[in-house]
Structures are given as C-alpha cells and as structure tokens.
Model the fold of this input.
Amino acid sequence: MRHIISVLLENEAGALSRVAGLFSARGYNIESLTVAPTDDPSLSRMTIVTSGSDEIVEQITKQLNKLIDVIKLLDMTAYPHIEREMALVKVRVPEAADREEVKRLADIFRARIIDVTHETYVIEITGEGSKLDAFLDALRSFPVLEVVRSGVMGIARGEVALQI
Amino acid sequence: MSETASSSTAITGAEIFCRSLQAEGVEVVFGYPGGAVLHIYDALYRQDQVSHVLTRHEQGAVHAAEGYAKSCDKPGVALVTSGPGATNAITGIADAYMDSVPLVVFSGQVPTSLIGNDAFQEVDTVGITRPCVKHNFLVKDVKDLASTIKKAFYVATTGRPGPVVVDIPKDVTAASCEFEYPESIRMRSYNPTSRGHTGQIRKAVDLILSAKQPMIYTGGGVILGKGSGALTEFTRKLGYPITNTLMGLGGYPASDKQYLGMLGMHGTYEANMAMHHADVLIAIGARFDDRVTGNIEKFCPHAKIVHVDVDPSSISKNVKVDVPIVGEVEPVLRELIKALGENGGKPDAEALATWWKQIEEWQAQDCLKYDQNSELIKPQYVVQKFWELTQGDAFVTSDVGQHQMWAAQFYRFDKPNRWINSGGLGTMGVGLPFAMGVQFAHPDATVGCITGEASIQMCIQELSTCFQYQLPLKILNLNNRYLGMVRQWQEFFYQGRYAMSYMDALPDFVKLAEAYGHVGIQVTQPGDVEGAIKEALAQKERLVFLDFITDQSENVYPMIPAGAGQNEMILV
Done:
C-alpha cells in the first residue's frame, strides 16, 4: 500500500543522505522525496512517498525515528490529508492554433502559462499526482520538451499537525 | 598540555580533545597515529591522564576498544588517522554496530580547505561509515568540538548502544578557542525510552502467568543493559526455563538448573525444542536473529510473545509479537517483578511440572556429547578443560567459526560480560584484539582467547602489541588445518567438495609466538591438554600461545540446517 510520510529533521549536512541511505540499505521503496528547510531554519521538512506492506511501513517509520537527526514524523496515510505536487511543463507551440489549444487545456486544468516565447510555453500546474498525469496525457498530441515534477508534499487536515 | 589553563584561556582543538576525554573519564584510547592526527598525538603525549595503546593495525585498535567496552561498563575509544586509517577501522565499527557496542571512534581528516579535493589520505569518512554507525559527526569548527564529543559519548552509551564516529579535520585540531565541557546534553531529536509502558507491563504479566509451557529467551540486551541480576530474580521467581542467545551468554548463570543452554543454529536440543513447543515466549533484549529463529515460518508456532527491547525497531521486525514493551531491560524487569507481586497470581504449578518433565526428556538426549575416547584431541575437550581449570571464571574471547560455537557450548558462563565474541557481523580476527581490550579493562583477570588457525591469522600482528604492553593472554588455538565451519558446510551441503577450506602452508605457531616474544606450546595428544593449560595458566606474566592439533573431522552438533525449523535439528 502507498504511504505518505512527513518527517521533521535537523537541517544539517548529511541528514538527507542518512534518510536516502536508510531506504537503499534496507531495500525500501521511495516513490518520491521532497525536502526543504521550514520557517525555523534549523529544521527541514521532508515528505516521502513509499509503498510496502503494513509490516514494512511500520519498520520504515521505526527506522526513520531511529535516525538521530529525525525529530518527529507522521504517517499521513492514517489521517485525512491533502497532497499536492507541482509540475513545470515546456511544450513547443509554433502554430497559433496549437497555442490556442494548449491555452484552453491549461485553463481546463487550472494550470498557468508562466513563460511564453515565439515557439514555447512553460506551464505550471499543481494538484494531486493523478491530476498532473491527466494533464500530461491531454498534452500528448503536442511536442512536450521537458517535464519537471516536484514530488509530493502533504499536510494533514484539521487539528493534526506535525510540529515540535 | 595546558592542564593548568583556566577555562577563559583559549586552547587548541587537540588539547580540547584531550581535556574532553579526561572529562569523560576515558582511561585508555586504542589507536594508531598518522598525518591528520599528529596534533592530537602531540597533545596526548603532553598529558598523562588518558593513556594510549598503540596497536599494529587500526582494525586491531577498534576491536580492542570493543573488547574493552564489552567486558566492562565503559565505552571503548579508538583514534585513527584519515584515509586508510579510517577505512581500516571500518570492520571494527561495523562489528560494533551489529553487536550494539558503545564505542567512540575518532578519525583524523584532511584540513577543511582540502575536503573534497581528493587530498592525500582523504576519504569521506562520514559517508563511508554512515551505514554502520549509530551516528557520526564531522567537526568543522573548533568551537563545536567539545560539545560534539559530549554528544558522541552520550549517543554511544544511551538507548541501544552503538558506535559513533567523530571525524576531525587537522586544522580544527590546530585552531584554538576557549574550552568548556558541557555538564550534560539534551538533543531534541534523541530521547531513548527507558521505562516500560505500565499498561503493557500488566498485560505481559497476565500473559506470563497464563502460560502452560513458558520459555524465557534472552539476548545481548541483558548484558548491555546490566540486567542479569534482575533477570535471575525474575526467572527464579517464575520457575520457568530459560535460554540465552550467543550474545546473551552469562546473562543468566549457566550452572543454574533452570538454564537450558544456548539456543539457535548450534544451540542445545532442549532449548530449541522448548522454544518450538512454548505457548508463551518471553523475549528480553534479544532480536530474533535468523541464526536463532531458523526458518521464520516455522518459528514458535504455538507461542504468544512478550518482547522487551530498548530499540522499538527490533520489535516485530522479524517476528510479530503480541505484547511489545519498549524500554531498558533492567528497569522493565524490575517493573515486571513488581507487577508479578501485585498481580497476586501464581504460575500454573501442575502445568509447569509436566512441562519440566518434557524438557528433561529432551535433555536426556545429551545433545552435546562427543567421543571421550578419541586418539585425537577433540576441540570440545580443550574448551571443557579450560572451563574446569579456570573454574568458569575467566574472560573468554573467541573468533568466528566452529571454535566459537564450541566455546559457546562448553564454556559455561555464570556471569555477564565474560563472553566476548562477534555475534552479528561474524568477524574473523576479532579474538586476539578483543582479548587485549579485555585485559586492559581487567589487568589481573585470566583472559583466554579461543581461536582457530585461520581466524588468528587475520589479526596476528597484534601479538606485537601484546608484547609491548606485556598482556599475559592465554591463546587456545584449536588448529584443525581447515576453515572448520566452511568445511562442515561443504561436507553437509556440497558433497564434500572442500573448496578453499584447507589451510595449507600454516606457520609454525610455536616459533611465531616466540618470534613475537611470547611462549608457544604445541599439543598433539589428548593426554597433554590438561597439563598444557595448567602450564599456561601458571605463567602469570607471559602470553602463552597453545597450539592444539585437533581432530580435523569434528563437526559442531547439534545443528539446525538452513531453512529448517527449531524442532528439526541434526543430532550427532
């Protein structure tokens, strides 16, 4: 089963490789991993999307907690939560008709065109992974030059909060 | 070393290193100098509180620090230089990680300005050691040195202990700042649990008292957690049978009648059968290692399991348990004893009597029997004689292989911290440096190293260290001219194709011992075994290397073959 785990850890050199090393050393899956410092610059917040049986995910959370740099974590899967991912898509649109059609698709998906040249658009889209997949699928008939996906971020709904 | 310097005077990183070790009460550091640690060695030279033992290889230094730590209640400390010094230390660090040995290993590093430049003797020590340490640090600023050392000792010795590496660039040891050693340390990201959950303790007691066929299974956590006194009280109060893992030997007195011997691949028949038929299993400071469980699908099929461990990730890792208790072994056992009293219930005496009767039938198999009338020296006999002649009170280290299993089976440990071996990583070559570390911790004790002719050659250079420091170790070399355990598996599972397991071109161990300044004795006849051991023990001031030429065909029995269950042992 797919799990989304948020981790608060010390914002120190090497902390990311401790997490990445743990996953590779113990053979756990990583679907995506995003990390950035929080509003408290001594802390980083990481979101890991992984999959495995209940036993494996239990081990993953225990092993993460065992890392000295990890302060706290939350398996979001157990709570109502929101997931968001961002993608930046560069697509070639030399013809006016193409530009029209791509603009229309972007509007339908509530995506935004954030860079325009004579030949290309860069489109920004956020949402759940499945929405991003659907948008990329809709763009299939156009020459897509580049796709950058951020990986998933997550936050629990309501009172549940991962904080120290 | 500016021992008189007041705390307001700036001192160098190298001096801070020494002062921090002094503040931690470190008495001995095992190490080997080199370019990146020259400032540190100079500072060590100019003080006399922390002594330094020069080994002949960094691997020996780390293993000696492990032996020291395993035999007493203090962490081991090792000091190595950058690059090859650090890579040579890796085996020892990984060994300490697998067996949860509290260890602080300091490595020199190239100056911070050169890090990442492929400088001379540079390796990414923090990167290389990351998967085999409890934690590691790279100190980039001399101002962080004292607090990092404090953290290193704190992390290494608390919770589930383990090795911590502190990598110190050379310029950090030359730079100066004021020295202040923190009295205590708090880390928001590290708070090991010590006391067990009260509700879980009560649940455990209900389950324990409901047992008809109980079994207590304890491991190295009892030794590390200084829980053997509480374990003995707990076990005697219940009257239940108990077994120890390889790492847990001595956690419960082996001479006690409730003790069924070691369990696992080469454990006793009675211990493994009792595990298999148990209805309640009480696991304490043990981690359900594959050498213990055999085929996990067939492990303890009837048992409800209580598991006490300080490391939450050990619980339900290999085997799903019914009542987990996270906490340190000693306080949890004390709480369990208290809760047993408060519960008021008693073990089911009738069921227990029937259970013991069954166990006695298994014991009647006499699974550790071996040929007493052989013309050749039986390795088991050597260990048994050593046990008798030392009244079971020696510190015993071993290497890895058949001799390790015979040592574990035939030296019966009544006290914790007496049996020092490499259980998790299974590192050949540890026996001699382990023994050195033990002798430094216990200068007047008898320290025996039970080894084989293959293992001993993996750190043989340390005989030179033993001569320099006049360590009167007793080395019992069970010399069967084979990699015995490899040979045994080849005999059982590879139709006797002995690929690369014959130790050809062996040195003359007597001359070798003498070349290093020690006493060497070769023993070829069973009748001479006792006399040779007596002579070795009588030589109080000298290291004696006893080279026993043993029966080449002897195998370790009983045995659970790979993939089999605990009730499917091969007996003699």
